[in-house]
Write a structure and sequence with these properties.
Number of helices: 4
Structural class: alpha+beta
Radius of gyration: 16 Å
Order of helices and strands: EEHEEHHHEEEE
Largest sheet: 5 strands, antiparallel
Helix content: 25-40%
Shape: elongated
Number of strands: 8
CATH architecture: Sandwich
Strand content: 35-45%
């Protein structure tokens, strides 16, 4: 069994920016020469998330719209009292979605559905530079 660690650096522009990272992940898996195993991706940050989604214009609008209904911008968040900032909703959203995703590797390729892409979702109230940690484990 082998473990390989890599990173993907991304730069979001604004809140709810969705960035497709599927090609980068597929490239990392290809370079690894692993035949079978798992690919785990993690964002170290309390206001970012990783999702599997059909990365198309409708869903790129629908998903943020859903998040606005679940945790609206104009709602009171006690987090604002702690740090005197305005990203309480960002933390709530990130906690609901999660900071990581795991995908299988089979026959040397990342396994995902035909219309399923992996995306980073910026939930902070501003654009940020992020580093995604990719860990591959397998043979």
């Amino acid at each position: 069994m082998v473990t390989i660690t890599d990173t993907i650096s991304i730069h979001s522009k604004k809140e709810l920016d969705m960035i497709n990272i599927t090609d980068e992940l597929e490239s990392i898996v290809s370079r690894s020469k692993l035949n079978a195993g798992i690919c785990h991706v993690f964002v170290a940050g309390a206001t970012g998330a990783l999702i599997a989604i059909e990365y198309e214009p409708g869903l790129k609008k629908d998903f943020p719209d859903l998040l606005e209904r679940i945790s609206p911008k104009d709602l009171y968040y006690a987090h604002h009292e702690t740090w005197h900032d305005d990203n309480g909703r960002s933390h709530v959203r990130a906690s609901l979605i999660g900071p990581d995703i795991t995908l299988p590797i089979r026959n040397g390729r990342l396994v995902h559905g035909t219309w399923q892409q992996i995306a980073f979702l910026e939930l902070d109230t501003r654009g940020r530079s992020r580093e995604l940690i990719v860990t591959l484990t397998g043979d």
